[in-house]
Amino acid sequence: MAVQQAAGADPYFPEHGDPRYRVHRYELVLDYRPGPNRLSGMARINAIAGRSPLTEFVLNLADFKIGRVRVDGRQPHYTHRGGRLRVRPAKPVRAGAAFTVEVHWSGNPKPVNSPWGGLGWEELEDGALVASQPIGAPSWYPCNDRPADKASYQISITTPSAYAVVAGGRLLTRTTKASTTTWVYEQSAPTSSYLVGLAIGKYQTVVLADPGLGGVPQHAHIPAHLLPEFSRDFARQPQMMHLFQQLFGPYPFDEYAVVVTEEELDVPVEAQGLSLFGANHVDGARGSERLVAHELAHQWFGNSVSIADWRNIWLNEGLAKYAEWLWSERSGGRSAQQLAASAHRLLSTLPQDLRLADPGRKSMFDDRLYERGGLTVHALRCALGDDAFFHMLRAWAGLHRNGTVTTSAFVSHVARFAAEPVDELFEAWVYGAALPPLPGAETRAAV
User: Fold this and answer.
1) Least packed by Cβ within 10 Å: which of 220, 230, 317, 419?
2) Spatial CA neighbour of 138 closest among 39, 68, 71
3) Residues 221 and 207 sit within 8 Å (Cβ to Cβ)
4) What is the tens place of the pLDDT at every residue in 61-91?
């Protein structure tokens, strides 16, 4: 596993994350009451100092009341302003030393402000939902909120027993006492803070596929009245899982879950081992099937193989977009070449001032990044040929499993599988702004 840690603060969100340390594990113990939207929690954070002694460090946490903070059992000095919990240990943490932080907090969780509206914890009409990309995680727990800092998680959540709790990872226990139930989930794979997903609501759980020997358990949690439409819309997800494992390598986590909320969402949102859809993505006509493929593909590209900082987001979205095209091609829909041609026609009518390698914070979720990202991956397939291209993709997902990557690492990786230099291709598609010509080489269905 190759892990590349970003050396400094994220250039798009310098107030989020602290590169002076990294977290190994989060253990969260939460109590949530949906009626008053009241959350209280305790976090035990196991971390490791960087190359310099830590006289202070920062956790990101929204506007909650802080009840207690401890560093290795001792009371530190701390301040909490503007979503930053600045902690000064009673004794500096030695360079490279492990240390433990304990934080207690409580309050009414709400989304954090961002250029894209509120992100993170969202109170629903009857329950709650967490969709944090890119900076919403501090809306509900203290964290080192940078994508490169990946850690394992154990999350314990107590709610009234009428509600189900769904989180990414494996459900360890569910214990009911009187009128409340405590759900404990374990996500052992290293996870970026924004990818910790959570849904609390009145859901019916269904099995999407009998995993069999060596298969991937797949479950769905949905409002009961949406089950007939859902059953058609997600019927082919097990086939997607099978195809993507052929093309990208083994599924990187223990299991996969999808949640459909009662409410509408602008777009589905990926979390680690979990994807969140709105009721508007269920129509009984497979109208959002490409999004089902997109979110599943993110489990490989974005979740297991994560970006070192947000400048590299095209690596997540371009590969997930291309997975949509591969699914279409292999399931009887339009070919990747036809979909690439449509995307190219669309982009040719739009401003050409976006560079994939560094789109800028304002454009990191621009539709052009997704379409151009997919076209870039298609251009690579045309240049390498199918055998080398799919070998390259499987190796990328395997070599960097549970790690973090950059665009430059991807460029170097692709070059090892190319018979001819690919520098000009990347210069045009990734580092340049003008739209290159449509890749025209004949592509065949992957075998």
Assistant:
1) 419
2) 39
3) no
4) 999 999 999 999 999 999 999 999 999 999 9
pLDDT in tens, 265-310: 999 999 999 999 999 999 999 999 999 999 999 999 999 999 999 9
Q: Which two tokens stand for residue 150?
A: 């990946």
Positive or negative, the CA dihedral 12, 16, 20, 26 is: negative
List, for residues 52-69, the tens digit of each pLDDT value: 999 999 999 999 999 999
pTM: 0.95
* Residue 165 near residue 203 (C-beta atoms within 8 A): no
